TrEMBL record:
<protein>
    <recommendedName>
        <fullName>7-carboxy-7-deazaguanine synthase</fullName>
        <ecNumber>4.3.99.3</ecNumber>
    </recommendedName>
</protein>
<dbReference type="InterPro" id="IPR007197">
    <property type="entry name" value="rSAM"/>
</dbReference>
<comment type="subunit">
    <text>Homodimer.</text>
</comment>
<keyword id="KW-0479">Metal-binding</keyword>
<dbReference type="GO" id="GO:1904047">
    <property type="term" value="F:S-adenosyl-L-methionine binding"/>
</dbReference>
<keyword id="KW-0408">Iron</keyword>
<feature type="binding site">
    <location>
        <begin position="41"/>
        <end position="43"/>
    </location>
    <ligand>
        <name>substrate</name>
    </ligand>
</feature>
<keyword id="KW-0460">Magnesium</keyword>
<feature type="binding site">
    <location>
        <position position="64"/>
    </location>
    <ligand>
        <name>[4Fe-4S] cluster</name>
    </ligand>
</feature>
<dbReference type="InterPro" id="IPR013785">
    <property type="entry name" value="Aldolase_TIM"/>
</dbReference>
<keyword id="KW-0411">Iron-sulfur</keyword>
<dbReference type="InterPro" id="IPR024924">
    <property type="entry name" value="7-CO-7-deazaguanine_synth-like"/>
</dbReference>
<feature type="binding site">
    <location>
        <begin position="146"/>
        <end position="148"/>
    </location>
    <ligand>
        <name>S-adenosyl-L-methionine</name>
    </ligand>
</feature>
<dbReference type="GO" id="GO:0000287">
    <property type="term" value="F:magnesium ion binding"/>
</dbReference>
<keyword id="KW-0949">S-adenosyl-L-methionine</keyword>
<keyword id="KW-0004">4Fe-4S</keyword>
<feature type="binding site">
    <location>
        <begin position="66"/>
        <end position="68"/>
    </location>
    <ligand>
        <name>S-adenosyl-L-methionine</name>
    </ligand>
</feature>
Length: 269
């Protein structure tokens, strides 16, 4: 259900005059801005292969140059849906007992908490895919946290939409150690790093050192996953072998991107 509406396009155009509002088409009362809602196999992480309903909100506080969900971050597109309608749409997939709330950055929205509470009350296992810069109190079963390394920064050369205007803001925000620490302390967590090459490893090791020093709970290597950078089969073919070797060298897990292997970059997969 890739969606948009003229009203929302107008609202976003207005919001574009304000730097903060531009980041996400945030909170028009009840409900959430939904970019797509679909049934697929979880493609990433510890639950890879699990049939799941994906609820993708629009709006993000970061701008990774490689973002595979361009229409939730760089150019947000969505329709506002009530929480009742979202839960009803999820329940239509009767085979599923897992829901993945993703984005964009789902936790920028206050109403994400209400949605997670409703899904939890309805008996679903709820995974939240988050960049780790925002902590909220909610009945999250798996916090799938993907902290962003410097390899994500939209420098002028890599900016998909401009000339690096977002680079500094992105860099300032991409790691929030307090939010990250609270997430690992409060939830069953996997840390899913997007890796392109060897140069990314020192940064991961340093971040883990800092997180382990700050957190009141252990952060075992088995909860650290290396995921190859690539939104397409062609790009993954360039990154995945080296990333698999790095996982072996460091004793971290490797996660494939099953949905990209199966369906490449098709929407609603
Ligand atoms: C689109 S993001 C949405 C959730 C949240 N904003 C985040 O970044 O974790 C979903 C997942 O896709 C990953 N991702 C996005 N673009 C990617 C790419 N080109 N290659 C590999 N992983 C990517 C993110 O790191 C995250 O784990
Ligand atoms: N099949 C599938 N698995 C996924 N796991 C995390 C995803 C995401 O975009 O957050 C995702 C996605 O977009 N598709
Ligand atoms: S944090 Fe997630 S949604 Fe936001 S730009 Fe990066 S990959 Fe895309
Ligand atoms: Mg995805």
């Amino acid at each position: 259900m890739p969606v948009s509406s003229d009203v929302e396009a107008e609202r976003d155009a207005d919001a574009g005059q304000d730097a903060d509002a531009e980041e996400s088409p945030i909170d028009a009362g009840d409900g959430l801005p939904i970019n797509e809602l679909f049934y697929s196999l979880q493609g990433e992480g510890r639950l890879a292969g699990t049939p799941s309903v994906f609820v993708r909100t629009s709006g993000c506080n970061l701008r990774c140059w490689f973002c595979d969900s361009y229409h939730t971050s760089w150019e947000p597109t969505h329709a506002w849906e009530s929480l009742e309608d979202i839960v009803a749409a999820v329940e239509e997939y009767e085979e599923a007992d897992h829901v993945v709330l993703t984005g964009g950055e789902p936790l920028v929205h206050d109403a994400a908490v209400d949605l997670i509470e409703r899904l939890d009350a309805a008996g679903y296992h709820v995974t939240v895919e988050t960049n780790g810069t925002i902590h909220r109190d909610a009945p999250i079963d798996l916090a799938s946290v993907s902290p962003k390394l410097s390899n994500s920064t939209p420098t002028a050369e890599r900016d998909p939409a401009g000339e690096g205007e977002w680079a500094e803001r992105h860099d300032d925000r991409r790691i929030d150690m307090d939010a990250l620490t609270a997430l690992v302390e409060d939830y069953d967590t996997q840390l899913k790093f997007v890796v392109a090459d060897d140069e990314d490893l020192p940064e991961i090791l340093d971040l883990l050192d800092r997180l382990r020093a700050a957190a009141a709970v252990p952060v075992p290597d088995e909860d650290v996953l290396l995921m190859p950078e690539g939104a397409t089969r062609e790009r993954l073919a360039e990154t995945r072998e080296r990333v698999a070797d790095l996982a072996l060298e460091h004793g971290f897990r490797y996660t494939p991107r099953l949905h990209v292997d199966l369906w490449n970059d098709a929407p609603e997969t």
